[in-house]
Design a protein that fits this description.
heterodimer; A: alpha+beta; B: mainly alpha; 67% helix; globular; binds fe (ii) ion
């Protein structure tokens, strides 16, 4: 028998936090994936909400071009507040 | 040098730059083929050990002496299933399928920890497994939370968190026995007598000293997968466990066990490594039984997997 599809599991640890990737699992459909995710990843109250996404549906940036892809941000130090020098008397900046 | 060689060299340099700076390799990064293969084998064998390891303790679920102990044991065995799942998922990020790995287990092409080929003869064995076997596993696994392959390291973080419950419940269970009747205490001592050396053997054969170099350990250390030698980890385990045995009031079955002030460690008798290799090769007391049970569980569950798949595809068609 061929394997059940693979799902990526995301869990919100508690209210106020975003969902975080915790791992993956196999399941025949989305409903079973959520149930299995509960049993595999939240046996000790690790979450209040679960997302499952078919692994095949995720589009990722390519590791081969990772330098070129993220380069544009590297030389733009002026995007950070510490780039700017202001007199010490100027408070709350 | 041909341009392709140059490219391969650059890729290797990039890999070692990450490993040497204690960074993590992630699934889609370039990695040497030997590193990938070695990881697949190690993670898969680790996963197999988790699920085969459910059997010796599972043997006692229906005969646990109280509802409390039964609930604890169920939770522990369920955790071990979870550990297997985390690890199979980590192995799959390296481009192998779950079915493939299970097939390798079922056809004996991949191994699992030899410790699970020993039988659980009494209730005290369940406590001894939690205390010693999970204790040895923790000693082995804590350094793996910092191993160079990201998905494996993350799986180990989850596993280590859960293992500490496993070890403590085992210790507590044994403590209850040693504080019980003389017969109960004798049962606990008998369990320690049988599980001590197989637990020491869990760390693998000696891998330090002049007779061993250039072996598996050295390569794994170069790759940032292994951080300590088998012998260091075994010593750490003995140093941690002997004082615990004193709290239990049990005697470690080693007449040569004594504290060495100079070394700052216990001196102890090594396990019988010939026995270890025999058991790994398939000649342990329960090898046949464990694999037969695993294969039967897989086959007996086939109709459930098929039904779930049929239901899912029917619903998909109805929705289309
Ligand atoms: Fe485990
Ligand atoms: Fe465990």
């Amino acid at each position: 028998m061929s394997e059940w599809p693979l799902w990526e599991v995301f869990i919100r640890a508690r209210r106020g936090l975003s969902h975080q990737h915790v791992g993956s699992l196999h399941a025949p459909d989305a409903a079973m994936a959520v149930r299995n995710a509960r049993d595999v990843y939240t046996r000790r109250g690790e979450g209040v909400s679960i997302w499952v996404v078919p692994s095949g549906q995720i589009t990722a940036s390519s590791p081969d071009e990772k330098d070129a892809f993220f380069d544009p941000a590297a030389d733009k130090v002026y995007r950070h507040p510490t780039f700017y020098e202001v007199p010490a008397e100027a408070k709350h900046l | 040098m041909a341009p392709t060689d140059q490219r391969t060299d650059d890729r290797e340099a990039a890999f070692y730059a990450i490993v040497d700076s204690d960074g993590r390799i992630e699934p889609r990064d370039d990695m040497p083929e030997a590193y990938r293969r070695s990881l697949v084998r190690q993670i898969a064998q680790h996963a197999h050990s988790e699920i085969i390891g459910m059997q010796p303790e599972g043997n006692w679920i229906s005969r646990a002496p109280s509802l409390r102990r039964k609930a604890i044991l169920l939770a522990k065995v369920q955790d071990e299933a979870g550990h297997g799942l985390y690890l199979y998922a980590a192995a799959e990020t390296l481009g192998v399928s779950r079915d493939e790995l299970l097939e390798l287990l079922h056809t004996r092409k991949q191994k699992y920890s030899s410790i699970f080929n020993y039988p659980t003869l009494t209730w005290a064995d369940v406590g001894a497994i939690g205390w010693l076997v999970d204790g040895a596993a923790i000693t082995n696994q804590v350094p793996l939370t910092r191993c160079s392959y990201g998905p494996y390291a993350r799986a180990m973080v989850r596993i280590c968190k859960e293992e500490s419950f496993h070890q403590r419940q085992g210790f507590e269970s044994l403590l209850t026995l040693t504080r019980g009747t003389p017969a109960q205490k004798a049962m606990a001592q008998d369990a320690l007598d049988r599980w001590w050396y197989p637990s020491l053997a869990m760390f693998g054969p000696p891998d330090t000293g002049e007779q061993v170099s250039g072996g598996h350990t050295e390569q794994s250390m170069r790759w940032g997968i292994k951080r300590f030698s088998n012998d260091e980890l075994r010593q750490r385990f003995v140093d941690m466990t002997v004082p615990q045995s004193e709290v239990l009031g049990l005697t470690v079955p080693d007449p040569d066990l004594r504290w060495n002030d100079e070394r700052g460690h216990y001196d102890f008798t090594q396990p019988d490594y010939d026995e270890l290799f025999r058991v790994i090769k398939g000649d342990g007391p329960c090898n046949e039984q464990r694999l037969r049970h695993r294969v039967a569980a897989q086959e007996d569950g086939a109709w459930v997997r098929e039904a779930a798949a049929a239901y899912a595809s029917k619903r998909k068609q109805a929705a289309a």
